[in-house]
Amino acid sequence: MRSNPAPLPLPTERRQTVRPAALAPEDVRDSADLARLIEQLGCGDDLIVVSNRAPCVHSRSADGIVAQRPAGGLVTALEAVLSKEGGCWIAHGSGDADRATVDANDHVLPQHIDAPYRLRRLWLSDTEVAGYYDGLANEALWPLCHRTGVAPTFRAADWANYVAVNRRFAEAVVAEASSARPVVLVQDYHLALVPQMVREQLPDAVIILFWHIPFPTPQVLATFPWASELMAGLLASTVMGLQTPGDLTNFSLARAKIAGAHGRGVAHAGAYPISIAWPARADVAAPGVRESVGRQFGIAPGVRLLVGVDRMDYTKGLSERLQAFELLLERRPDLRGHVTLLQIGAPCRSALAAYQKITRDVGALTQRVNARFGKDGWQPVVLHAQSADAATVTACYRAADVCLVTSLHDGMNLVAKEFVAARTDLRGALVLSSQAGAAAELHQALIVDPRDIAGMARAIERALDMSPDEQTRRLRAMRGVVSQFTVFRWAAALLVDGMRIGAGRQSGRIAMMATERA
Length: 518
Prior knowledge:
The protein is an alpha/beta fold. The chain has 17 helices and 15 strands. The chain folds into 2 domains: 27-276 and 489-517, Glycogen Phosphorylase B (Rossmann fold), CATH 3.40.50.2000; 289-483, 3-Layer(aba) Sandwich (Rossmann fold), CATH 3.40.50. It has a 7-stranded parallel beta sheet with strand order 5-4-1-6-7-8-9.
């Protein structure tokens, strides 16, 4: 007698066995999507992030040891990459309580960090910091890569410290890797030699270096005494990520010039414009934000608001911005008493002479404009020469009639994208430098030449006069771009390309070894 056939599974049971569709980078919007993609790629168990700055700094306070986390989308995205146990973040330990929070292997103890990954700290001496960071990174490479008129300073001792510190980071990567093929994400110009140093010991590693600042032309790079060594370090990457097509062109030209010395090196270079984490739908402007910002910064009710949010850095075009506002007040007496520029200028690298000079220049210009035009109850410029927390910055974006991003030269400048994301009311205007990477994406901003003082004054005037309908149209278009191209999509694109190209590179290496043995 035949037995009855097994019952067919219910529809719900069938759905449970269907595997989710494969994700592409363009499908990734948030941290959950990125986690799914990493699971799909199968690379989450041996991921290593390497950066100069740590995602968490510990300091001593009256209440004991406290953790401070830098604001910004980059840390958010990289932490999403390291969402599985087994990942590691390697960074310089610079907080005054950092040493008190680590174990014998310099990993931050679990009670001091709420994260699934390991945070490995490296300790640098004052001499190393002065040479590697202040000297080579910020007095040589930073001005070399930014067109601002500040001349780079080249010192052999700084280069020696840069090489030594990069070697220490690379050794930490090798020590933390749990396989012969880790996925290593190296961040920025501070660590340009790490890919080659890691490749020497882990030839199958997938190494992704992202260069966050502008990449110089080959002619400018040739003035750097160690250009060949720098490019050799970069060319050992599996993927070399840059901000814009223009940066990619500069890198490709530099790569061609040194190809004879170092071979073709890096398997892939591409433009991967970085972005921000799109805010949650519930993150909307609270009523009275304009009044709150006014009270906080001493700006009278009814005064229209221009906002700038920058580091006190000579690349940000702060002097030119103030001069443009001064010219606007000259031309438009009717604006006096009715418009204020709130400039947040966070202190930055204050030990270096170029940064001391820009701080003095901005202070002097602020005093000049206020002396010329200020009157009882109104100051044209309110300079907040301090850092501001993320909540304050977002409130300033939402209170602004106009946001000013007028960098002389910038890799991306995420302030522009943060402003767009903050304006859920579809109000306000963005004046954006053509020399910021964001200008390649945010076409509906008012694009300006940051060295054209008169042109910037006209753009600010136009922004103040812009109708609500035009504001809405422009912001809706820009929000569409930023909401799709998030920092998680940026990370996804780098990882997908890195894993694909790394697999091909490994296969080619295995085939070559087999041929040599034959």
